[in-house]
C-alpha cells in the first residue's frame, strides 16, 4: 500500500501512476465502481474502494459523483478484513479533501467510532486515521461531534508517541479543534504542551509546523494550566522566543501573541522568565520591521516588560528608546545585553531612514509637477 503524501494545507493520498484527470470515460468508470461497491463479494468491494481512492485523488467532480458511496465505505471500516478497512479509510480520506459536504456526510454516516479505533492500530493505520481526523476537523460543523467522541486524549497520546507524520497530523487536528474556548480546556486537560514544545524545539522555526505549534500554544495560554505547563517545561519559553526571532511572519505574530497574553494576564509572574530568555532583540526588530499590528503588540510587550509598567511622564517622555534602555539596564552585562544594545542602535537608524522616506514621499505629493525632484525614494516602508 502506498504511503500517504500530504500537502501543507490539505491531505491527498498518493494513488497509482494512471492519470486521475477527468476524461470522457470518467462517468462510466464511476458507475462501474459504484456497481462493484454494491457487490456481496468482499474482493470486489475492496477493488471499488481502491478505485474510488484513485479516481477522487485530483478530481473534485469525482468526489461529488462518489458521495453516494460514503455509507458503504463507512460500513467497510467495520470489516474484520484489514485490507477492506484500510481501502475504505483511504477512499474516505480522498473524498473528504477539499469537499466540505463530504466531510460532513462522513461524520454523519458514523465514521468517527471506527476511525478512532484505528488510532490504536499499527503505525500505517494510525497515520491514515489521524490524517482523516485532521481532514474532517477542518469542517466547523464536524467539530462538536469530533470533540464529543472523546478523541482529544488519543490525539494527545499520538502527539507524544506517534510516528513523525502522525504527530504532525495530530497537532494540526488539535489546532483545528482549538478554535472554541471550551475545546481548549479539554485539550489542556490532555496535557499536550510538553509534546508541542518538543516539536517546536526540534523543528525548523520558519516551517509550517512551527507556525501551527505556536498558533496552538497562543490559543492555550489563555488558560492558567497551559501557562504553567509552558513555563515549567525546560526550554518552553525559549522556544517561543526563538520563533519570535526567526520564524515566519505568521509564526512570529503567534509567538508575540503568546508572550503578550502571558504578561497581560500576570505581568509579575511571567516578566522575568520572558526577559531571561533574551526576548528584547526579537521585539526590537518587530517594532520596526513587523506589520502595524506586530509593531503595536511588540511595543506594548516592551512596556509591560520594563521595570515599571506605568508611564514615567514626570521624568522623561515614554519613547520606545527610553523603554528599551530601561530594560537593557536591568539585564546582566552579557551577550544578550550587547545584542540588545546593537539592535537598539540599528532600530534607531532604521526609524530615522523610514522617517526620511516618509518626508520624501510627502514632498513628492506636495511638490508641483513642473519642478524636478531628485533622490526621492520610490519604496514605501515595510508594514
**Which stretches of 5+ consecutive residues score pLDDT under 50?**
1-10, 12-25, 311-317, 365-383
Beta-strand portion reads under 5%
| CATH secondary-structure class of the domain at 1-136 | Mainly Alpha
Work out the radius of gyration: 27 Å
Say which CATH homologous superfamily of the domain at 1-136 is assigned: Leucine-rich Repeat Variant
| Overall average residue pLDDT | 82
Specify the overall morphology.
elongated
Spatial arrangement of strands, main beta sheet: 1-2
How many beta strands in the DSSP annotation?
2
CATH topology of the domain at 1-136: Leucine-rich Repeat Variant
Number of helices: 22
H/E series, N to C? EEHHHHHHHHHHHHHHHHHHHHHH
- Fraction in helix: 55-70%
CATH architecture descriptor name of the domain at 1-136: Alpha Horseshoe
Which structural class do you get from the secondary structure elements?
Answer: mainly alpha
- End-to-end distance: 48 Å
* Main sheet specs: 2 strands, antiparallel
Could you outline the blueprint of secondary structure elements for this entry?
Layout: E1 4-6, E2 11-13, H1 26-37, H2 42-55, H3 60-65, H4 70-76, H5 82-96, H6 100-108, H7 112-118, H8 123-137, H9 143-148, H10 152-161, H11 164-177, H12 181-189, H13 193-202, H14 208-220, H15 224-232, H16 236-246, H17 249-265, H18 267-276, H19 280-289, H20 292-305, H21 320-329, H22 335-366
Antiparallel strand pairs: 1-2
Helix pairs in contact: 1-2, 2-5, 4-5, 5-8, 7-8, 8-11, 10-11, 11-14, 13-14, 14-17, 16-17, 16-19, 17-18, 17-20, 19-20, 19-22, 20-21, 21-22
Domain U-box: 142-308
InterPro entries: ARM-like (IPR011989), ARM-type_fold (IPR016024), ARM_PUB (IPR058678), Armadillo (IPR000225)
ARM repeats: 68-110, 110-151
Amino acid at each position: 500500500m502506498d504511503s500517504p503524501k500530504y500537502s501543507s494545507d490539505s491531505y491527498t493520498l498518493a494513488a497509482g501512476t494512471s492519470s486521475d484527470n477527468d476524461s470522457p470515460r470518467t462517468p462510466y468508470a464511476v458507475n462501474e465502481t459504484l456497481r462493484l461497491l454494491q457487490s456481496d463479494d468482499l474482493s470486489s468491494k475492496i477493488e471499488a474502494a481502491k478505485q474510488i481512492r484513485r479516481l477522487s485523488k485530483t478530481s473534485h467532480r469525482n468526489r461529488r459523483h462518489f458521495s453516494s458511496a460514503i455509507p458503504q465505505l463507512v460500513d467497510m471500516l467495520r470489516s474484520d478484513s484489514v485490507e477492506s478497512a484500510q481501502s475504505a479509510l483511504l477512499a474516505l480520506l480522498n473524498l473528504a479533501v477539499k469537499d466540505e459536504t463530504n466531510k460532513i456526510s462522513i461524520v454523519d454516516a458514523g465514521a468517527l467510532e471506527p476511525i478512532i479505533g484505528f488510532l490504536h492500530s499499527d503505525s500505517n493505520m494510525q497515520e491514515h486515521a489521524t490524517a482523516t481526523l485532521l481532514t474532517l476537523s477542518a469542517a466547523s460543523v464536524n467539530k462538536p461531534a469530533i470533540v464529543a467522541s472523546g478523541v482529544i486524549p488519543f490525539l494527545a497520546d499520538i502527539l507524544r508517541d506517534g510516528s513523525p507524520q502522525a504527530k504532525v497530523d495530530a497537532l494540526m487536528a488539535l489546532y483545528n479543534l482549538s478554535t472554541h474556548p471550551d475545546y481548549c480546556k479539554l485539550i489542556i486537560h490532555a496535557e499536550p504542551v510538553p509534546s508541542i514544545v518538543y516539536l517546536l524545539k526540534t523543528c525548523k522555526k520558519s516551517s509550517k509546523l512551527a507556525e501551527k505549534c505556536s498558533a496552538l500554544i497562543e490559543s492555550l495560554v489563555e488558560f492558567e494550566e497551559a501557562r504553567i505547563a509552558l513555563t515549567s517545561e525546560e526550554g518552553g519559553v525559549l522556544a517561543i522566543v526563538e520563533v519570535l526571532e526567526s520564524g515566519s511572519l505568521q509564526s512570529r505574530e503567534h509567538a508575540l501573541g503568546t508572550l503578550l497574553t502571558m504578561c497581560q494576564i500576570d505581568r509579575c509572574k511571567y516578566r522575568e522568565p520572558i526577559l531571561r530568555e533574551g526576548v528584547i532583540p526579537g521585539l526590537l526588530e518587530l517594532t520596526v520591521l513587523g506589520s502595524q499590528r506586530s509593531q503595536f503588540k511588540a511595543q506594548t510587550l516592551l512596556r509591560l516588560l520594563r521595570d515599571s509598567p506605568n508611564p514615567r511622564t514626570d521624568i522623561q517622555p515614554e519613547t520606545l528608546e527610553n523603554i528599551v534602555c530601561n530594560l537593557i539596564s536591568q539585564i546582566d552585562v552579557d551577550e544578550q545585553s550587547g545584542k540588545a544594545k546593537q539592535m537598539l542602535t540599528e532600530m534607531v537608524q532604521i526609524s530615522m531612514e523610514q522617517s526620511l522616506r516618509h518626508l520624501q514621499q510627502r514632498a513628492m505629493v506636495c511638490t508641483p509637477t513642473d519642478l524636478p525632484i531628485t533622490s526621492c525614494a520610490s519604496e514605501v516602508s515595510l508594514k
